[in-house]
Amino acid sequence: MASLNLHCGFGFYGQPFDVPAALGQLDADVVCLQESWLPAAGEDGGPAIDSLAEAANKFGAEFFRVVLNRPHGLNLAGVPPSSVPGELAIAVLTALPVTDYRIIELGRAPGDSVPRFGQVVTFELAAGTKVRVVNIHLTHRLTSPLQLRALLRRLREDALSSDRIPTIVAGDFNMPRPLAAMSINYDVTVRGKTWPADRPVVQLDHIIVDQRIKVLQSQVLPGVGSDHLPVRARLSVLPARR
């Protein structure tokens, strides 16, 4: 699986990139995406291009999208201002069969302009094995560790009330690796700086796994156009303990 902050389809200095082509370079069965942008119309007034729908159609996948905000125009650091309204979202693109999907609300941090959510997608693998992936884009307002702790608590409560499903949490955590690694029940898979893509100085993007998941390989991938570098991990679900 992989994770990428799309930065609404623009690089660090505002240069646009081909989102479906970028997603194809990730070569993953499941991709967690942050800062996906769907304009209400094209800049010329024509129909909008839904890059996620285009990618899903191209790769024979399906996607799940959660809208965080509907601004009147695009106004991100380094991105050319746009007066075209649209939807800022997080999304999961998957080629695996989905058996369950739900949203965990994480609230709005003080000073943050958007609420935060966790997308919980449960997949069925070979021989009926299930695994759940949680896509997140946590706040940049310094309280991201609190949101991560709240999310992991909710996931732990779910595990106590139902069959425990191996869990992967991925996305833009907006925190460096030492903070992402603080949970004793999850292991951080990828080690390497991811932001800004042209000259990375910090790792903000992570894939963490619980103790039912074995890490076979993990890496920071080369840039695909965004201001973040993608991360990818090859994972295996361990047999259930009896």
Q: Short description, anyone?
A:
The chain is of the alpha+beta class.
Would you give an account of this structure?
The chain has 4 helices and 12 strands. The mean pLDDT is 93. The chain is an alpha+beta fold and 242 residues long. The chain has helices spanning 19-26, 51-59, 144-161, 177-180, and strands spanning 2-5, 30-39, 62-69, 86-94, 98-107, 116-124, 130-137, 167-172, 186-188, 205-210, 213-220, 231-237. It has a single domain (2-237), classed as Endonuclease/exonuclease/phosphatase (Deoxyribonuclease I, Chain A). Helix content is 16%, strand content 36%. Strands 3-4-2-1-12-11 form a 6-stranded mixed sheet, with helices on one face. Helix 1 links the parallel strand 1 and strand 2 (30-39).
| Main sheet makeup | 6 strands, mixed
Mean pLDDT across all residues, rounded?
93
Sheet with most strands: strand arrangement: 3-4-2-1-12-11
> Strand content of the residues, in percent?
35-45%
The number of distinct structural domains comes to: 1
Question: How far is the N terminus from the C terminus?
Answer: 27 Å
Give the number of DSSP strands: 12
Element order: H for helix, E for strand: EHEHEEEEEHEHEEEE
> What's the CATH class label?
Alpha Beta
Helix content bin? 10-25%
Name given to the CATH homologous superfamily: Endonuclease/exonuclease/phosphatase
From the coordinates shown, what is the CATH architecture? 4-Layer Sandwich
CATH topology assignment: Deoxyribonuclease I, Chain A
Structural class: alpha+beta
Our count of helices gives 4
